[in-house]
Amino acid sequence: MQNTPFDTPDVTLITPTATVATPTHGGRAKCLQRLVRLNLPVPQTVALSFSTVHQIATGVLPDVDGILQRFKDGCLLCVRPSSEDPDWGGPGAVLNIGMNDARFVELSDRIGADAAAQIYKRFVQTYAIHVARLDPDIFDDIADDGQIGLGQSLRAYEDEAEEGFPQSPARQLAEVLRSMARAWEGTTARLLRQAKGAPMDAGLGLVVQEMALGLGQGECGSGVLQLVNSRTGENQITGRYLSQSQGREALDGGTRALFLERDPRGPSLEELAPEAFAELNAHAALMRQRLREEMQIEFTIENGELHILDGVRAKRSPQAAVRISVALAEDGIIPRHEALLRVDPHALTELLHRQVADDADRDVLGAGIAASPGAATGRIVFTAADAQASAARGEACILVRRETAPEDIRGMHAASAILTERGGMTSHAAVIGRGMGLPCIVGAARMKFHVQRKKLISEDGRSLSEGDIITIDGTSGQILAGAPKMVEAAQDDVFRTLMSWADAERDIGVRANADTPADAQTARNFDAQGIGLCRTEHMFFEEDRLTPMREMIFANSAQDRKATLALILPMQRADFTELFRIMQGQPVCIRLFDPPLHEFLPHDRAGLRDMAEALDMPVSEVTRRVESMGEYNPMLGMRGVRLGVTVPEIYDMQARAIFEATLDASRDGAPVVPEIMIPLVSAKREVEIVRTRIDAVAAAVRNERGKDFTYRLGVMAETPRACLRAEEIAQHAHFLSFGTNDLTQMTYGLSRDDAGRFMSDYVKLGVFNEDPFHVLDTDGVGELVKLGVQRGRAGREGITMSVCGEHGGNPESIAFCRAVGVDYVSCSPFRVPIARLSAAQLAIRDKMESGKY
Amino acid sequence: MQNTPFDTPDVTLITPTATVATPTHGGRAKCLQRLVRLNLPVPQTVALSFSTVHQIATGVLPDVDGILQRFKDGCLLCVRPSSEDPDWGGPGAVLNIGMNDARFVELSDRIGADAAAQIYKRFVQTYAIHVARLDPDIFDDIADDGQIGLGQSLRAYEDEAEEGFPQSPARQLAEVLRSMARAWEGTTARLLRQAKGAPMDAGLGLVVQEMALGLGQGECGSGVLQLVNSRTGENQITGRYLSQSQGREALDGGTRALFLERDPRGPSLEELAPEAFAELNAHAALMRQRLREEMQIEFTIENGELHILDGVRAKRSPQAAVRISVALAEDGIIPRHEALLRVDPHALTELLHRQVADDADRDVLGAGIAASPGAATGRIVFTAADAQASAARGEACILVRRETAPEDIRGMHAASAILTERGGMTSHAAVIGRGMGLPCIVGAARMKFHVQRKKLISEDGRSLSEGDIITIDGTSGQILAGAPKMVEAAQDDVFRTLMSWADAERDIGVRANADTPADAQTARNFDAQGIGLCRTEHMFFEEDRLTPMREMIFANSAQDRKATLALILPMQRADFTELFRIMQGQPVCIRLFDPPLHEFLPHDRAGLRDMAEALDMPVSEVTRRVESMGEYNPMLGMRGVRLGVTVPEIYDMQARAIFEATLDASRDGAPVVPEIMIPLVSAKREVEIVRTRIDAVAAAVRNERGKDFTYRLGVMAETPRACLRAEEIAQHAHFLSFGTNDLTQMTYGLSRDDAGRFMSDYVKLGVFNEDPFHVLDTDGVGELVKLGVQRGRAGREGITMSVCGEHGGNPESIAFCRAVGVDYVSCSPFRVPIARLSAAQLAIRDKMESGKY
């Protein structure tokens, strides 16, 4: 059929050549045109553009009679929304427009009075509620019987609306169009779709389609079909069919609905109408091939004849999304790069962790910041020691603390999940939780934490005790009572295939932050290209190291410090040797000791007494010295390179441990080239001083062992000043790694541990668009990184630039890092796949823009 | 006398036309040439250049015989050092060179054997010790009698040196030159002069001068004279004369030395030799006029005839420096701008505070960081409450604390000086101390502070108790036992004259940081051009405000917060009214509430109990809530505009108090235009939100009072991000004030309160050239200020830019501020004069460079 002269792009019959496009008419209109082009049996359809619908909302109607003239005389119509992105929602479809007393009579002849009355009754009720906006209660007592119910419904309408039910199909259509257009412009609808990413001025198109009735004589009914399982992504014909139904009723049809394919569980469409089923399947296969996507098809059978009413992108879990994309590419339907673009990197998170099932019962005790994704169930414990005891008994436990500190590390390793009252996205618990892939909720401040009394009070006042079972849903941030249903992580071959394609595309490196052998193993499992940040401080918290560490802190001379550190040396060497062995010659970037020394000192009476005994000092003296080491702002205090300069024996020992481990590990495998990173640098001279000592240690080790090795010395650029002075700092550094966590803290003047108190208010009020600890602030922090990269490269040709810390795994932040010329990002092992895919997508989009794809 | 042909610039007879310059021959040689040009009776003098002396040190001697030929046959010579700056030190003068057995005989004839023997004996001893480097002990038992002593000395020399005393004048002179040249090149001498600012390669010249003997027949003697008092700068002939003496012996001559001018205290040169005295006075007046400086003159009378041997710049206290410069300008000898350049701004500090007298006995108990200059004596107290009690009894007290916190404010006001164990140049105690002009030493960590037990242990182990009298010398950083002698502050008319000349020259504004009416009065006394920073938090610490403040903090609703803040409103309004009245229409920039709320909460058991009573809550609940408000890094926490956004009732109340005070104060005087400053901004939206509310408060006050007023709203740029985003932030701000204290903390990632622990090590090791809290780090922090100024001006034309905080009063930092285009600096009231003079000097130097002066 050709467009008639009065067709315009604003109101157009959908034909293979009509001017219909997603940005002007919406995705549904465009999809229907593609189905028409495939010669599928699509009922006659007219598309109304965004601008037409916007006009309708302001009161300017199109030529409704003209629209009606495009359709067979006496047919019924339906109107469906067609927005640019189907996820943005929209008003519900209105079916059976045109139904009135006269057509009821006609239709009764054709399909029987009961079916006709059903259709008319439904239309009256839908129209009353959604178009005339009458109170739904008026239909509460309507009889089920078709014809009696119809009469009651028409009377109820007349009573409430104070006029008879409109009989003119033109008026009906006009009112439906007007009500749908206005619903789209309503404030609630706008806010809802903006929350899903729609722009302020997102438009709505509408499609007016001739109804295939699905009720009447012969085999009539409707259903939906798709070729894949939405949860797993595997090939499986799924959907339902219900005789004598319209729209999507089959999905709510319960046991009355048929399976599609022959199925042991019950009767199927394939058995009922083998020809229609075969035709439907052929259409579905064609749609997958030509629409290059797994679609869910809405179809109607009218007296045995198949009609395809609509096709929408099949819903899919993250796991299914991966499998579907890979299958489409492997079947040659889409190229690999397109398969990569179709998977949302954020969604990968769910694949890498156990999750609370979608259909689980959630008994919510409270909520906090979703700091580390995944879910775990266990018994409540309130101390790190109890967590270890619990692990020793083989019982899963949840560690509940007001906050965590480095001394809780072993307890955190023993726990299945972590819950804290305080802290934000980058508090200690959150960072460690993400690093270990442990579900974690922080800042759950609306619950009450009586850690001393071993009580936890839920937001609604329920009291929980040690040993009670709870579930931490680190993906949503909810604390749940008991053990809801879970779904397991799924990192299968298909996932690995997708990742290998990503690696072939991306042009920025991805390393992992890994502090322990377990982390390193995870990093390798996720194919990280080395370790970008190995924090060494945890190595000093092990039981056997803490006492020498404390003796070292209290030592009065460099000589004494050296002697106590010598006790720790062999243990550190063993730590590094194991890391190097696991990483099999891949680069390992080790950050020298960073935290303030007072983190290693006890603060409670028992701990002070123990320490006094261990060091053979009076408790009063120990207490005085511990107190005198306290700091107002430990974050900005005596730590990092400041310790390296003023208490150089620690770095000396660490450098020796690294170099000796380098030689030990190189003996059995690929030669190791360790990278040594100096934290918290703010001035060039700090680097010079540390470098001189480390070079001396290297020379000594070479001499003692009679073997050569190389190493790279670099700087963690995490103060604004290090970025500003990067040119001169780079003269002494093989690499600069931007520690965007601390850099964000300092650029904003905002402690990550304290920001939790107001960050959610701040994001809600739009003061910050995003939590800058979560998404890199490209305007402020980003400018410093950019300056740092530019100046660093000006200072030393061939210098390696990287970003480590939480932002390294964030897709938006990776885009920025890549744009400013960073060589690699480093993130938690569990975010490595996300980073790899994000990086690939960025490279692909660049190639597409430059016409290479 | 003309130069003879063999004269070169390297070894030259000083004549009016000889080539002699300070940068090549040193200041003494140049000054002597100027005296020669004035036709003063200067003995024949030869100048050796820096390069000649450097050659001598390496072993290459000039033509010594040639030098000797320039002098009368048989005369004695002296050699004196002539470095570029007399402050850089140098080897001592050597007199009487050329003395030997033959000349002893000749001289015995002329001036008597005793005098000749005295001269010879002194020369032998000086030569032995300083030239031949013999052990001084060998002269321990030499007889006083001239001739016997001479013989003993010659024998002692011969015994020790294993050769007779050298008789050749040429050899004597050569050895003297060599030993002086080498002394200058020694490491100790170099380090000493570098500490005074000399460059690595500073040179030494030497002057060889014919001796006027000062011993012999007729009136012979030597002395020094200057026309001003070195301490006060007032006109007063000062100096001494001693018959039969050489060099500067008259100054050590005790009661034997004569006064110069007729004096009731004893005999004078004026009486002894009126003609010589008159001639000397005439020479001195001529020198002041023509050398354009107050000089100290070294003179010798030989048989009644006056010789001028040397002139050096008269030493002067800071007070004298001001008076001398002003007098020279008022006498038309130098222009005003030169008078301004001659006063070191740093030295003004001493004029503004009481000081420990130079000649006081110092019994040092310990030392710390000299955080606020001036000295005060008082009894030790260990708590703020005791300080108030002490003040109530009218007893001066010294507040000794481990550190101070805002709740100590009233105690600090009551104390005469402050001493703390912890903290650095910008810790709370230091900042408040400087603001109040209170002597303060912080970071005295080598003393032991047992504040609970009310004991203070000195560095050498002495125990001090409450009530013991000590003295805090905040200028030197020393803690002294007892009450040493003091000198009072001197801010007199001459000082005001100099300052008025400075104000006429400078082109950058100077305001004061002032929090209280007393501060504001000081600011006016020092002619600040308004208040650049009025911190308001102290206003909440007053006894009558603390309880409502705490109720406000614990309130559960905005309504309750408003109600409790309403109690504080009238008191704040009164505070501001008084400030505005004192400042008489000058601008007052008020910073809105900045500190974290937990600073207002008690932390000890007694305080918690009091608070529980006052608020009628269980202690356990109060304790829990106080604890839950604690922060890891309060500096980077919930404070400043973050409170303004999330607890807006505080700023609402403050704005109302400011506006109502504006109307109240404007009624009686010049109309007040208050400036309101938002602290800790890091994002534009923070400013928008606060501004909207403050505009609303202004509208409400205008409406209620039926009167109009204007105000200016601005931003304290103290986070790196505020500087980077200054362009957009400026769109909502009438002014930006760079808070360089916090900005330095964040740019370096360095807490000012914790930096004390390692800052001195860092400066010693050259990691930082200077403490960046003391001198603005122009490389890093400065770049952010510069970017902020540029971007802020790009964002809003005519925006006012300023720098507040400690750096505002530092001369080096002011130079930077002026260079980057800041409109005014604001600093502690006591630093205002320093800033005014520094700013004037900068403007003058610019004019000189561009030829306008």
UniProtKB/TrEMBL annotation, chains A, B:
Residues 491-842 form the PEP-utilising enzyme C-terminal domain. The active site is at 428 (tele-phosphohistidine intermediate), 804 (proton donor). Mg(2+) binds at residues 718, 742. Its EC number is 2.7.9.1. InterPro entries: PEP-util_enz_mobile_dom, PEP_util_C, Phosphohistidine_dom_sf, Pyruvate_phosphate_dikinase, Pyrv/PenolPyrv_kinase-like_dom, Pyrv_kinase-like_dom_sf. The keyword Transferase applies. Signal peptide: none annotated. Catalyzes the reversible phosphorylation of pyruvate and phosphate. PANTHER family: PHOSPHOENOLPYRUVATE DIKINASE-RELATED, PYRUVATE, PHOSPHATE DIKINASE 1, CHLOROPLASTIC. Belongs to the PEP-utilizing enzyme family. NCBIfam families: pyru_phos_dikin. This is Pyruvate, phosphate dikinase. The gene is ppdK.
